[in-house]
User: Fold this.
Amino acid sequence: MRHNFTPKQQRQIRERSGDICEAGKFDTEEFYGMSRGQTCSMPAEEIDHITADALKRTRIQSIDEGLHVCKIHHKIKTASDRKKIAKATRLDEARVGIKKRKYVWPKRRFGT
Assistant:
């Protein structure tokens, strides 16, 4: 189940950022592919979960769990999060006994 920020929380995050991308602030440089101490100064457009919502699995407690970021940094983080989410899903499915079905190639018929 997806847990989104409430409109009130979104407003508070936007006010905190001043509509400037927060990528790199609050020790998040690694998530956004930035070097230590580097920040972004582009206009912020999207609200991003610091820890991917699919990995966290609990309700949002505060605005400290989100950042107001530009589209570029949101795409960068989402790309790396998708790999982590896929792995977590595979591990969850394996834990309950669901295995990925392996495709069996049909046998060729010769001379028919």
Notes: Residues 94 and 101 are 12 Å apart (CA to CA). Residues 71-95 form the longest helix (25 residues).
